[in-house]
Amino acid sequence: MEKLIYLDNAATTKTAPEVVEAMLPYFTEKFGNPSSVYSFASGNKDVITKQREIIADALGAKANEIYFTAGGSESDNWALKAAADAYKDKGNHIITTKIEHHAILHTGEYLERHGFEVTYLDVDENGVVKLDELKAAIRPETILISVMFANNEIGTIQPVKEIGEIAREHGILFHTDAVQAFGQVPMDVDECYIDMLSASGHKLNGPKGIGFLYIRKGVKIRSFVHGGAQERKRRAGTENVPGIVGLGTAVSRAVRTMEERTAKEIELRDYLIDRVMNEIPYTKLNGHKEKRLPNNANFSFRFIEGEALLIKLDMKGICGSSGSACTSGSLDPSHVLLAIGLPHEIAHGSLRLTLNEEITKEDIDYVTDSLKEIVAELRSMSPLYEDFKKAEERAQ
Ligand SMILES: *Cc1c(COP(=O)(O)O)cnc(C)c1O
Predict the structure, then answer these.
(1) SS3 category, 184
(2) What is the C-alpha separation between 60 and 57, in angstroms, rounded?
């Protein structure tokens, strides 16, 4: 096979072999419907309970507070829509941020069309929510605060505990989209006053199409899918048993390997950041320097188009992701990069590289050498860069 260096682990991850192995019997000999009476199938009910316990343990939660969903997007939709519906008699105001995933932002817009008011908080230049602005946004009719645990583009980790404290003091529900952070950063729902938390299997070496929503006992919540009695009657549908087993296995693996895995990723991430920042001029690191996900690096290269960079990297077998959204049919750069104050033209030249535990120092050297070469080549073709260099010479 051609060389392939996969640095897009924020988009999705490879399903770990032990996860696939654990799932396989549930497609074949253990295919029974957990709701069936005969023991051959009903045994799968206990298997599901076991996975709920594994996940709950990873969060400091209880097994009956874990609800399986079809992934992060569904969990986010459920948390916002159901809380809005269940608490609408108390108020119609929701607070979130400008840097959330679209699963939150677009759900917020949907709720705005249905009589709710949503405040989208600004963030600072590192992508951190400002706590004084959060406090100032709270109104008597605020029913929910939803702030992501860590950002999927720039990797910034939020002061989740402080946000949870503020929510709790004001008697407001706190939801966090932890899809990127869960499995990379230790977390405890009680310590951080989290009432609801979204996570997804495929972002932590589990399968796609499975995730969960943690809902604290006592939180009023509406059913998301109506039908059978699955998930305590809150989310009907025959359970995705292989997916649930895959998710549970991925979570226990993530917990078991977290310390060693993230230490290695942090070392290589910082090596990558140092090399790029030192060796490629007119480059900016996006996101917080320390409070960032162990595997995330995000750069803006001036005078460069992110899309062109991605194509050239692809030709060298390197998979990354760009901060511009041209691929999704929009010419606007990422809402996250704009929210941290990047001008359009700089946001357009952005590159996100997200590591995994298989990446080596040699890979990082190859990637950095390739980047240097590609950035120089693209700049040499850029009229903007030419003008900039001429102006610089004149100024000297
Ligand atoms: C990937 C992602 C989601 C969506 O999860 P899916 O399982 O793909 O639906 C939501 N939020 C964040 C922060 C993500 O990174």
Answers:
(1) coil
(2) 5
Confidence of residue 329 (pLDDT cuts 50, 70, 90): low
Protein residues with CB under 6 Å of any ligand 1 atom: 71-73, 76, 101, 103, 148, 152, 177, 179-180, 200, 202-203, 211
Q: 357-368: per-residue pLDDT in tens?
A: 999 999 999 999
- Determine the pLDDT at residue 148: 98
Q: What is the DSSP letter of 24?
A: G
Condensed to tens digits (0 to 9), the pLDDT of residues 42-96 reads: 999 999 999 999 999 999 999 999 999 999 999 999 999 999 999 999 999 999 9
- pLDDT above 70: percentage of residues in the chain: 97
Q: CA-to-CA distance for 15 and 360, rounded, in angstroms? A: 19
Which of 101, 175, 176, 204 is the pocket-test mutation for ligand 1 (most atoms within 8 Å of CB)?
A: 101
| Closest C-alpha residue for ligand 1 atom 3 | 72
Ligand 1 center from residue 396 Cα (angstroms): 48
Our mutation pick for probing the ligand 1 site, out of 13, 147, 152, 175, counting the most ligand atoms within 8 A of Cβ, is 152
Question: What pLDDT sits at residue 332?
Answer: 77
Contacts of residue 383, defined as CB under 8 A and 6 or more positions apart, other chains included, come to none
Query: Per-residue DSSP letters for 225-269?
Result: B-SSSTTTTTB-S---HHHHHHHHHHHHHHHHHHHHHHHHHHHHH
**Residues ≥6 apart with Cβ < 8 Å to 346:** 284, 300, 302, 337
CA of 200 to the centre of ligand 1 (A): 7
Beta bridge partners of 119: 95
**What are the residue ranges of helices labelled H in the chain?**
17-23, 39-59, 72-86, 102-112, 131-137, 160-169, 241-279, 306-315, 335-339, 344-347, 361-380, 383-395
Q: What are the pLDDT digits (tens) for 130-168?
A: 999 999 999 999 999 999 999 999 999 999 999 999 999
Q: Is residue 326 annotated as a catalytic residue, yes or no?
A: yes
Q: Which two tokens stand for residue 5?
A: 């260096």
Total-model pTM: 0.96
